[in-house]
Amino acid sequence: MPIKIPVQLPAYNVLSNENIFVMNIERAETQDIRPLKIAILNLMPIKIQAENQLLRYLSNTPIQVEITLIQTKTYTSQNTPIEHLEKFYNYFEEVKDKKFDGLIITGAPVETMEFEDVSYWNELKEIMEWSKVNVFSTLHICWGAQAALYYHYNINKKPLEKKIFGVFSHEVNKINEDLTRGLDDIFYAPHSRYTTTLKKDINKVKELEILAESEEAGVFIIATKDKRQIFITGHLEYDRDTLKNEYLRDYNKGIKIEIPKNYFPKDDVKEIPTVRWRGSANIVFSNWLNYCVYQNTPFKLENIK
């Protein structure tokens, strides 16, 4: 099914060349159906890359998806052309009077900082509070998940002795859950973080359930029982070369960094990385859009509360 985005957005050509059904706005407006309205609060520094990654998986949906990109006003990305931000992004104040079927809050490279020290923390808190009554289901990724668990449930992240970095195996805890429906008993996902959220802290909150976890990487998919708030601690959306680029970036800066686990064949950085998570990513994003959003969100957006 199609994803509805402007023709000028870089993702349009990227996804079209991958044979993914992308629909321009003009064609979408001739179809007599209501698209899912999904907002993306993009906190990643290289925003175009993050757009391409997320939109690739949001295209695998049962209905049109209309995307609204949001950036913070209290911090402007230094790694994305200002022309791109001005053309395609909204500030929160421009959309706060609207309602959305879904919201994605991405990760951000600020995990070693205290939440309160992040320049846009107050703005993010306002958005997370707003999402409770203006969004039907919110999906938080990596640091976005940690921030939301801290804000909503006072669960703080914990520093690690060394970075969780690589592609790790995970197990599904609840096979009858909509969000994990179709996943293999053992599936793979990338992680790249210096902090973690402890299972024992999550288990103290009755509203939360751990749907999938990893022996090496820890808890992975956490959700409220009504699936209005979902937290994913890794990066199912990553491309083949994302971990490679992160490794080379840090290595070239002289940062002590291990080769990503279970990623390069024979741990040889000259080899093409092996993708083991694409199927799982398609399943999780599709399940979120279908079961957590499309099947349950009110037809009239104003009825979301």
From TrEMBL:
Pathway: Amino-acid biosynthesis; L-methionine biosynthesis via de novo pathway; O-acetyl-L-homoserine from L-homoserine: step 1/1. The record marks E111 as: Important for acyl-CoA specificity. The keyword Ribosomal protein does not apply. Keywords: Acyltransferase, Amino-acid biosynthesis, Cytoplasm, Methionine biosynthesis, Transferase. PANTHER family: HOMOSERINE O-SUCCINYLTRANSFERASE. The active site is at C142 (acyl-thioester intermediate), H235 (proton acceptor), E237. SUPFAM superfamilies: Class I glutamine amidotransferase-like. It holds the Pfam family HTS. This is Homoserine O-acetyltransferase. Substrate binds at K163, S192, R249. It catalyses: L-homoserine + acetyl-CoA = O-acetyl-L-homoserine + CoA. One of its GO terms (cellular component) is cytoplasm. One of its GO terms (biological process) is L-methionine biosynthetic process from homoserine via O-succinyl-L-homoserine and cystathionine. Belongs to the MetA family. One of its GO terms (molecular function) is homoserine O-acetyltransferase activity. CDD domains: GATase1_HTS. It is found in: Cytoplasm. InterPro entries: Class_I_gatase-like (IPR029062), HST_MetA (IPR005697), MetA_family (IPR033752). Transfers an acetyl group from acetyl-CoA to L-homoserine, forming acetyl-L-homoserine.
